[in-house]
Amino acid sequence: MTNSLDSTRLRNLKEKGFKLLFLTCAIISIITTLAIIYILVSDSISFFSEIPITEFLLGTEWYPTMMPQEFGVLPLLAGTIMITVGAAIVAIPLGVATAVYLSEYADKRLRKIIKPILEVLAGIPTIVYGFFALTFITPILQNIFPDVGIFNAASASIVVGIMILPMISSLSEDAINAVPDEIKRGGYALGATKLRVTTNITIPAALSGILSSFILGISRAIGETMAVTIAAGRTPNITANPFESIQTMTSAMVEIGSSDVAVGSLPYQSLFAVGLLLFIITLLMNMVSQYMKSKYQEVYD
Question: Are residues 7 and 120 both part of a single domain?
């Protein structure tokens, strides 16, 4: 009887210990997030006390470390959008097609080969992707289009698209696999082909998960740093030509952070203003992802 009571007491003690451990981990995550927001906001407030926010958001020149200093973030925003759109054009069709093939068409043996290869892509360091773009993709583009510069937005977009491809394909595949087989069998029972079942039943039923994978992949592309810095260069430039060098927001932050600007100076504080804008953009993207997921989510009994 006494042993049984001791065992129950020990089990309850372990449960409380694990509960406390998990709660501590959750609190650490929240505190870390709040600390990042605090640092971004506090330094940004100091920056915006000297540079009007309209000048920052609408200015078309970005030269924080040169004289005269210019803090217009539009060139960086345009470069970030160009890379993100280009990466989405590469990754979304390829990712969805790969997900459909793996979930609907590939046999188990082939799936066991393709899936790990995609996962390897996700594990490659981003700096390796940058040099891959510089030494492999750019020369190919230059052979096709002689006007392509060494640093250009096109190669950066392609390589970032390759980087986010595993995320989109993996999440889309999970969403497609979550569609109940009974729904697909209903389509086959009506005489539909596999392609029609996939395009008219499976993909619409998995739409919420597929759209969420797009948003998460795009959010990842927006925040990419090293590959873009190496492949696209560091030219703050508003252009629609993907063969020119551009600079993204993350790349500008790296440039300022690695320069010899004094801590607390205006160029140093501009780093946090750009970071805050980037944080707001990715936060909005995540909110859109959650909205789409809830709006188009199918609930099955």
Answer: no
Q: Range of 12's domain? A: 2-50
Could you give the C-alpha distances from 258 to 199, 232, 251, 293, in angstroms and in order? 49, 18, 11, 39
Pair type for strands 70-71 and 62-63:
antiparallel
pLDDT value of position 97: 92
Per-residue pLDDT at 38 = 92
Same structural domain, 20 and 146: no
- The CATH number of residue 173's host domain is 1.10.3720.10
| Domain count for the chain | 2
Report DSSP letters for 108-174, one per residue: HHHHHHHHHHHHHHHHS-HHHHHHHIIIIIHHHHHHH-TT--SS-HHHHHHHHHHHHHHHHHHHHHH
- The model's pTM: 0.83
List, for residues 116-136, the tens digit of each pLDDT value.
888 888 788 888 988 999 899
Residue 90 has pLDDT above 80, yes or no: yes
Neighbour-count burial of 205, counting CB atoms closer than 10 A to its CB (0-12 exposed, 13-18 middle, 19+ buried): buried
Using alpha carbons, select from 90, 224, 86, 66 the residue that is nearest to residue 152.
Answer: 86
